[in-house]
Amino acid sequence: MTVRCLRITSIIIVSALLLAIAGCVPGFVDPLAEEEIINEPIEHHFDSMVSAAEINYVVPVSIPNILVNQLGYLTDNTKMAIFRGENLPDSFDVVYAATGQVIYSGEIGELVYNAAFDEHLSYGFFDDVTQPGLYYLEAKVVGRSYFFTIGDDLFASILESAARQYYLNRCGVLLSETFAHHFARPACHIEAVALREDTEVFLDVSGGWHLDGDGFRDTFTTASIVTLLLLAHELYDGATDDLIEIPALLDEIRHGVEWLRKMQDVTTGGVYAGVEIIANENDADIKTTSVMPVSVPATKMFCAAMAKFAYLYQGVNNAFATECLRAADRAWRYLERNHTDLQDEIFFLAACEMYRASGFHTYHRVATAYMNSEDFRLLFTEIPTGKSIDTRQETILMGAVTYLLTRRWVDRRLCAELTEVILMLGDDVATRSRLSPYLTTAHEKQSGNTDILTDMFVISITNFIIPNHEYMRIIENHVHYLCGRNSAAISYIDDVGGLNYKDVDNRLGIMNHIETNTKLYFSLMGLRNNLN
Hints:
Layout: E1 2-4, H1 14-20, E2 66-67, E3 72-74, E4 80-84, E5 91-96, E6 101-107, E7 112-114, E8 119-125, E9 133-139, E10 143-144, E11 148-151, H2 155-168, H3 177-180, E12 193-195, E13 202-203, E14 217-218, H4 219-236, H5 249-262, E15 274-279, E16 287-291, H6 296-313, H7 318-338, H8 345-358, H9 361-371, H10 374-381, H11 391-405, E17 409-411, H12 412-435, H13 450-465, H14 469-482, H15 514-531
Parallel strand pairs: 3-11, 12-16
Antiparallel strand pairs: 1-17, 2-4, 4-8, 5-6, 5-9, 7-8, 9-10, 9-11, 12-13, 14-15, 15-16
Helix pairs in contact: 1-12, 2-15, 4-5, 4-6, 4-15, 5-6, 6-7, 6-8, 7-8, 8-9, 8-11, 11-12, 12-13, 13-14, 13-15, 14-15
């Protein structure tokens, strides 16, 4: 039995939702020490980008024992600092940095033992401080915090920085001084490149976004980024309208889409895996560039991204959107002709996007067949709680959201099941955050922030389905964590903080890894959209 998606307009309990739901969610619309030193802003450097963000690192020995968001706190929101130590004083002071004047004194709460990091913590609140300005906290025994700002719309600055990363990493085009400032440069990698499998065949593969310092571009990754950015545009359209120093989000997405189109073999419909750049083993300055062979996973993700773009772009440029949908159809037909086993999470995502964009029930049958499969049940409906979802589960989540977004005929039972699982995932993130002394899903075994960003993405999706003040607070606490309110007192955000990741290890950054930057950008858009 199938019905049209309906809109849910208020917060309701899950049991009532599953009885009343007709296959969709609300808001879905059709068509990313004691003596303190203020570091000078450190700009993004293209040459510093690397392809892998997960690393182990040694935390600096000398770090403050008053942990704050080194970006700052919104004027009318909760303002909390974390104090570390076994013998803490009873109170702390908020000091106006310009004058050294104590403008507020607050209480430090009872100690909590954080077994995960083997540390004693306590908390202090200073919500009553609402005067915009630069501050720091100070307390006997533990010393000072890093500086931070109190003001309105503080997250706009890091949202703009996250958005600029795509423009700064554009390949094949001139970067103008208007948008790139001192990173302006002429077009790069514009020469034709030979196929790895046939060095006599050359292709124009200029464009896309650099994924490392050499200019490596990966089709699967680019298509994944395009898909997530499109979802951000769909859910939070308008969240960046006032950030006029960067190109519009859809313009940036189109830049990625135009490169993806170049990576398709229009004769077969298959999609090349990417553009690799390999250094000579005897001379690192000598590098060979080639087009990697056709890839099945890249072809599937290409199909999903092009279909989603075609659906959302038709109101902007119907002719270009139609060409993109044709490209997606060519990719689908290539997969049907060359591969019999198509029951996997990427093909499910592609089927959901193709069904919504075209309306053909062939794609709907593929999507529902997968949702009724054992693979889907094990990967998605029976996910064990207590940890972040993996990349396969995340792909299914993207497909599930698309299925719920559609206004075409859908299966009511499957819509209810998808909604229940998404709410379960969001509640799991909320539970793990509540149990953490840092009020986030951070844990002692993490070697980077990938899991944290995935959890931010999940809770952002959940909050869109069922708007909830607690979910918004959790997202905001994760931003506090990434901006320095963490065990290492490191800000992982570009140009933010007295102790920035660049002072420790450049590989710890989020914005200089375009994949992780996209999840940060998505969550920041959702946060700003709800706060404004």
